[in-house]
Write a structure and sequence with these properties.
Length: 77
């Protein structure tokens, strides 16, 4: 079965893959060309995770009032 593309992976799947790549690179016995490929994969995964986190943050900071109006969340002191 072919691996899912980064954009199709869930946040959790992307994070697990990213951690596996970091562990592989930390060991240091990866040939240079493979290390560069792994680094590029890691950067794509990190970008996908960042985008998903930003979207989640945007969704969380919005509130829907009783009348259906969407407003930014603000803490009242």
């Amino acid at each position: 079965m072919a691996e899912k593309k980064e954009k199709e992976l869930s946040f959790e799947e992307s994070l697990i893959n990213l951690e596996e790549i970091v562990k592989k690179l930390e060991v240091g016995d990866v040939p240079l060309d493979d290390a560069i490929d792994e680094f590029n994969k890691a950067m794509k995964l990190a970008k996908a995770c960042d985008e998903k986190l930003k979207k989640a943050e945007e969704a969380i900071t919005k509130l829907v009032k009783d009348n259906g109006e969407i407003v930014d969340f603000q803490v009242e002191e």
